[in-house]
Every structure is written in C-alpha cells, then in structure tokens.
Amino acid sequence: MNETSAVSLREGERLEPLSKHTSVIVGNGCAFNTDTILLADFSMPKKGERCADFGTGCGTIPLLWCTRSNPGQVWAAEIQPGACEMARRSVRFNGFQDIIHVSEGDFRTLRSRENIPAGSLDLIACNPPYKEAGTGCLSATEEERIARHETVCRFSDIAKAASELLRWGGRFCCCMRPERLCGTLLTLREAGLEPKRIRFVQQRTTSAPFLFLLQANRGGKPGMTVAPTLLIEENGGFSEEML
User: Fold this and answer.
1) Digit-coded pLDDT (tens) for 216-229
2) Distance set, CA 239 to CA 176, 177, 194 (Å)
3) 114 and 36 in contact (C-beta within 8 Å)?
C-alpha cells in the first residue's frame, strides 16, 4: 500500500482502508457504507471483463473490484464534481489509473462521453437512490439528496442506460430496499434486463431483511435463483461471512 504522505488530503478528508493494500479517500459528504461493500462483493467481475459503476461516489466499488479481481476496463461514472475529484485521487493513489476511468457527468451520457460502443460491457453495478421521487424527507445537503433520493434520475433511467451498454447476456447488479422489490423487478424486465439472482440481507436472525442484492441479465430467460440470506450479525458480533 502507498504511504499516506503520497496522497494529498484536503481539509475534512481521510483515508479509509478497503484492504491491506487499498484505501479510498472519504469525507466532506462523500463516503461509503455496508451496502456499498456488499454490492461490490455481489457484483465482482471476472478476469478481463469491461465494467461500469453508475454513481460511483468516491470510487469504492471500482477500487474493490480491482483489489479482489482483475477486470479489463472500468468506467466509474459520477455526476458530482467533488466526488469525481476525490475518486480520481484515490485511483491514482492505489495505482489503478490504467484500469479505472473516472467519468464526470450523467451516467445516461456515459456512452457518448467516453465513446463506449452500445452493447459492449460485460457488467454494470449501481447503488441507486433508495427513495422514490416525492417520498421521504429530503436530506439536508445536495450531495446526500442526489445519493439518497431520485432527484436527478429514476431507477427506470438506470435500467434503460444499463440495457443500452450491456452486451447480450451482460449482467446488471444493484441493491435496493425490500419495499421496492416489486417495482424494481418490473422496471428491469421492461428494460430488457431479466432478474436472475437475488439475495436478501438482514442484520440478525430476529430482524426482517433491510436490503436485497439483485442481478439481472440482458436478454436472459425467465427464472431466478434465491441465495441464502446474508446475516450481518451472529452470536453478538459480525457473522463469519460478513467478516
């Protein structure tokens, strides 16, 4: 891992370790949470695959992909300039600048902006806003509103853009709150992305799931597998799998 002195940290920023050899710059309203880590693991690319991360934030998912796998090229799309700048510094700090391309702007224009041919990507991940437009109390800051509420885009926009970029059989992976399960499945199918794999996540055995991880394949045949539920806590601490 690089020395902390090799990266320029701004006021309010810090390095958050992702592994023994990889760290990401967080702070000033840009960070990651457990959902991000779980989605990165669930969507882990295969060797040489061309991938994209919609709404990459500080770049945690692409960094984890490159730490644990060996993807070909990764486009990290982010509309917020501050987050993009932090992600670029994290990419350079960890030495992944030849693999991860941080692209500032709306993910809906990623294809034209980066000259990515339609139907050429193997995998796309997205940790989308959980609150539908017009629901819930809006977050205090603009950064949080964009990340948590459908103020800039709707899930249907994400599904449409992913379908255009993915090859036939390519995978789209996302996470979402269980109360939006029905709408999520319908939206993906309408976009030509067939739900194929789902896994629910719950804090402990006595609580209901708070999240689901979902994979949908472009042009896939109907039929979805349900993986065993992932428990975050067990016997008073993190579960073995979570650790």
Assistant:
1) 999 999 999 999 99
2) 21, 21, 31
3) no
β-pair type (100-104, 23-27): unpaired
DSSP-derived letter for residue 72 is: S
Is residue 175 within 8 Å of residue 127, measured between CB atoms?
yes
CB atoms within 10 A of CB 237: 9
Cα dihedral 39, 22, 50, 228 in deg (nearest 10): -30
Q: Which helix (H) or strand (E) holds 210?
A: none
Contacts of residue 237, Cβ cutoff 8 Å, sequence gap at least 6: none
Contact 69, 101 (CB under 8 A): no
- Nearest 5°: the CA angle 189, 71, 167 is 30
What is the distance between the alpha carbons of residues 32 and 60, in angstroms, rounded to a whole number?
A: 7
Query: pLDDT tens digits, residue range 63-97?
Result: 999 999 999 999 999 999 999 999 999 999 999 99
The two tokens of residue 113 are: 């902006």
If phi > 0 it is left, if psi is from -120 to 50 it is alpha, else beta; for residue 134 that is left
For tokens 């990623």, the residue is 110
Q: Alpha-carbon dihedral of residues 79, 84, 86, 88, nearest 10 degrees?
A: 160
Name the strand (E) or helix (H) holding 21. none
What does R_g of the chain's alpha carbons equal in angstroms?
17
d(C-alpha 216, C-alpha 194), whole Å:
5
Token representation of residue 208:
């209901």
Those residues whose C-beta lies under 8 Å from the C-beta of residue 142, and which sit 6 or more positions away, are: none
**In contact, 93 and 7? CB cutoff 8 Å:** yes
